[in-house]
Design brief:
The complex is a heterodimer of chains A (about 220) and B (about 220). By secondary structure, chain A is of the alpha+beta class. Chain A has helices at about 10-15, 15-25, 30-35, 35-80, 160-165, 190-215; strands spanning about 85-90, 100-105, 115-120, 130-135, 140-150. Chain A folds into 2 domains: about 20-80, no CATH class; about 85-215, no CATH class. Chain A is built from 6 helices and 5 strands. Chain A has a 5-stranded antiparallel β-sheet, sandwiched between helices. The two termini of chain A are about 45 Å apart. Chain B is mainly alpha-helical and about 220 residues long. Chain B has 9 helices and 2 strands, in the order H-H-H-H-H-H-H-E-E-H-H. Chain B has a two-stranded antiparallel sheet. Chain B is globular, with a radius of gyration of 19 Å. Classes of the chains: A alpha+beta (about 220), B mainly alpha (about 220). The interface between A and B is large, with 43 and 45 residues.
């Protein structure tokens, strides 16, 4: 923060010259002078209220557009992680495994069950990563896609790359990050983000198994 | 007219916010890994700077002095939030690539510094012009730093930040990685500091030479 010595000098010399002239007769200005705290609080309240009102107006205009764009993105993402999806609908459950936010059931044109698109929210380095995991009814991962994240640019954001996300395809319950054969290799320099994505994928598998095999498969 | 020219010279060179006043170092280091990000950040900050300078200048006699910083931050944050919502709705692709950095504009100290040092003491038109010239100075510095870092650190120009060779990559490959591997250190935060230091040194050199010539 940069503060200059001469800061606000002109404003200080004649505070509220504009308001004062109009309101002197009503005795409003002496009142404000006597209670500077009310003056300051009132001015800040008025300003924040006005800014909030304007932002609210803009929000009512932009929110539907943003929601529609997000729905379109979600649709594309669902058919990306569960290939061949023609239609999908949300599933309800009393409780999903940890990190799972929502589950969508994906069917092809004939109505046959292809698998589940599970939205999970593991914690990465810079906050929650919003992840979409495609899992077939046997609990095998068919695709992973990152919907939204706030990871460190050029480090954590490298997890949003097909070459990394495709490493999870074909994995099932019990897979782990690591150097061994059959393990998923993490991205160097982005261990926290990689681990978070792996945790989200594991939660997606757990959710799919919960649906197809009933209780007791929480991973 | 002369005053206008002087403001442009101030913003771009003699008082360049990034290279001379050393304000707004966080975006200069964090967002300068690719040219598109750098310029996008510069232009968004310029837009917010023009708007906030104008409004703060117009309200400068109404804001009680003791809470002026809080008031400025409210105004700046309001504009940034509005820009964020509008970009998200109408320019989703730009919003996706810049999304992480737009909220950072709130804490870009160039904007608060210009509110405090200029807009709170000058008329509306001058303050708006100050926002434009300072914003362009910031954008120019971001452009220079990110140009150097992208070419040396990534071997590309105008890339969208995706790895070279991946399906999502767009941009020009200047130095293919198999011919000469990019200097990763330049793309890392350390390279940001190094590049910034060299660019500031070059700027100082040019300006001191100019001053000497002016005297002679």
């Amino acid at each position: 923060m940069s503060e200059r010595e001469t800061a606000g000098a002109p404003a200080a010399a004649e505070p509220n010259a504009g308001i004062g002239a109009a309101q002197r007769e009503t005795g409003f200005e002496p009142f404000l002078k006597k209670h500077p705290i009310l003056h300051m609080a009132g001015a800040l309240l008025a300003l924040t209220a006005f800014v909030a009102f304007l932002l609210g107006l803009i929000h009512t205009q932009t929110a539907p557009v943003i929601a529609r764009l997000q729905a379109e993105t979600l649709e594309a993402a669902v058919s990306g992680v569960v290939p061949g999806t023609a239609s999908f609908q949300p599933l309800q459950a009393d409780s999903w495994p940890k990190l799972v936010k929502s589950v969508r059931e994906c069917r092809d044109e004939t109505g046959a069950l292809l698998g589940f698109a599970v939205e999970t929210a593991p914690s990465g380095f810079g906050g929650t990563i919003s992840l979409l995991v495609g899992v077939d009814p046997e609990g095998v991962v068919t695709g992973v896609s990152i919907l939204d994240m706030k990871e460190t640019p050029n480090l954590g954001t490298k997890t949003d790359d097909p070459s990394f996300l495709s490493r999870f395809v074909g994995k099932s319950v019990g897979f782990k990050l690591g150097p061994g054969a059959g393990d998923v290799q993490a991205i160097s320099g982005a261990t926290v983000s990689s681990t978070a994505v792996a945790g989200g994928v594991a939660a997606g598998i757990a959710a799919a198994l919960q649906i197809t095999q009933g209780e007791g498969t929480v991973g | 007219m002369n005053k206008t020219l002087a403001q442009f010279r101030n913003g771009l060179f003699t008082q360049n916010p990034t290279l001379v006043l050393l304000l707004g170092m966080c975006p200069a280091l964090a967002v300068s890994t690719t040219l598109l990000n750098g310029l996008g950040m510069g232009l968004c900050a310029t837009l917010v700077l023009i708007c906030s300078n104008t409004v703060i200048s117009a309200l400068r006699r109404l804001i009680p002095e003791k809470i002026r910083i809080a008031a400025y931050v409210v105004i700046i944050a309001g504009f940034v939030t509005a820009v964020e919502m509008l970009l998200g709705a109408y320019l989703p692709s730009l919003s996706k690539s810049l999304g992480l950095f737009i909220p950072l504009i709130v804490v870009n100290c160039i904007i608060l510094a210009r509110a405090e040092a200029f807009a709170s003491k000058n008329g509306v038109a001058r303050s708006a012009l100050d926002g434009l010239t300072m914003g362009l100075g910031f954008t120019m510095s971001m452009g220079i730093i990110s140009l150097i870092r992208e070419v040396l650190g990534n071997g590309t120009l105008f890339s969208n930040g995706k790895p070279v060779g991946s399906a999502d990559f767009t941009g020009l490959v200047l130095i293919p990685p198999d011919v000469f591997p990019p200097v990763l250190a330049i793309a890392m935060p350390m390279g940001g500091f190094l590049t910034l230091g060299f660019v500031i040194a070059a700027m100082q050199r040019i300006m001191s030479r100019r001053r000497k010539e002016g005297k002679a």
